[in-house]
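Example record used in the benchmark description.
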Amino acid sequence: MIKVSQKVTESAGLIAEIERRTGQRISDCYQCGRCTSTCAGSFAFDRPPHVLMRMLQLGRVQEAMESKTAQLCYDCMTCSSRCPMNIDVAFIIETVSNIAHEQGVKYTIKSMDRFRKLFLHNVRRHGRLHEASLLASYNLRSLQPRNDFSLAPLILKKKKKFHFFPPRIRDRAEVRRIFEELERDPDYGRGFGE
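Model output (C-alpha cells):
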C-alpha cells in the first residue's frame, strides 16, 4: 500500500477548498499564457498568473500562498476576461490570498497588510475610496509623509479627476451597515488584522 504524505493531503484539501469557493476548476487551465501576457502587474510578480495556476495544478499551494503574485494582484480582472477557458483566474488568485491570510501566512511584503487595513478603513469612512486620504494616511503610517510629493504636479493637472476632499455620497450609512454586518461574521477580517 502506498502512503500519501500529509503535505500532499493538505494540498489536495486546499485545492478542493479553492475550487469550492471560486466555483472554478483549476485543472481546466491548459497553460496558454494569455492571462500573463495581458496582466498589467506581472512585471512585479515573482510568479506570473499562468505559473501560479500551474503551481496549484501541481499541488504547490503553500508556495502559491507565499508568492508576491497573491499579495500584489490588482484584481483588474483582465486575466479572467481573456481566458479562453473562461476561468476566473483573478478570483482564484484572490482566494489563494484569502486562504493564506486565514492560515496565518505572513506577507513577504510587509506594507501590504498596512495598505489593506487603510484601504478598508477609507471605504468604510467615506462610503467609497478616497484616494487622497488613503495616500496621505498610508504615507504617514509608513513614516514617509513626503513620499509622493513628486506626483503633485501631475495630480494637480487632473483637478477634475482628483478630489482633495471626499465627495459626498448618499448611502454612506448603507456602507457602514454592510461593514457592521460583516463584523458580526466571526471569519471577517481574519486576514486583515482587524
